[in-house]
């Protein structure tokens, strides 16, 4: 009995010393956190809520996703500390860091740091099969083009891209499903999508009326990439029944972001939860197939959070010190 009591006392002593150490390790952690996503029904909302809940469960914290206005607002929310984490595309991130975020012009949002790569958002153009539009240079002057929701990544960058390529157009905005209906009814000439593929509106149009998926030429692709923070992309042939071969396009990377002043150990552990088991992330959303270590280099300008950078560098990345916040 004495032996048992002694063992119990030793165990209690060990537990008593371990608990303060754990408390000390997490002493500067927030008790809860929020991930800024976007509107309901989109990829950001599903993906963001998924990884927020995963991190909360694994780390024993209260956390979840929050509806927001998307990439630009998310940069602002994380920069000001209104949310701990967020999600952004690299174009809005670049503009925000440079002080060109339309939410707060002139404010350099440098307190938002890179956390991990998410996935690519391809840019694609769709026209009706009977329109005669088969390439960018066959889009007629004054074409009515739908660019998606006002202020979205598509609405921000696609008009600039087409202007660069010499296209003259009338700008229209709306939800993707609504724009698809307008295209089918002859109220639009094309739709310029920046969205995960397959785009449901395009798949529906294929069944109902038939479409042309417009690819960029090599020269057009190169000009666009030189002017904007975009990467080369091919829309796989099996994405749409219309395609007989992969379609040349461009895409913008999406990254998770974290407040640069969040505790290093907290962001390290949150990054580890997301990045250590890709199958678990893919179960949350198929787009997470690109949420892998190898894609860390798709961020070429945003400072990394020290905690995220430490995890990546321990797992095969080579993030230089001058790209780490405070480094």
From TrEMBL:
**Signal peptide annotation:** 1-23
Please indicate if the UniProt record lists Signal as a keyword.
Answer: yes
Q: Pfam families from the entry?
A: NMT1_3 (PF16868)
What InterPro entries is this protein classified in? TRAP_TAXI
UniProt keyword terms in alphabetical order: Signal
What the entry lists under NCBIfam families is as follows: TRAP_TAXI
What is the protein name given in its UniProt record? C4-dicarboxylate ABC transporter substrate-binding protein
Q: Which organism is it from?
A: Rhodovibrio sodomensis
Q: What broad taxonomic lineage does this protein's source fall under?
A: Bacteria, Pseudomonadati, Pseudomonadota, Alphaproteobacteria, Rhodospirillales
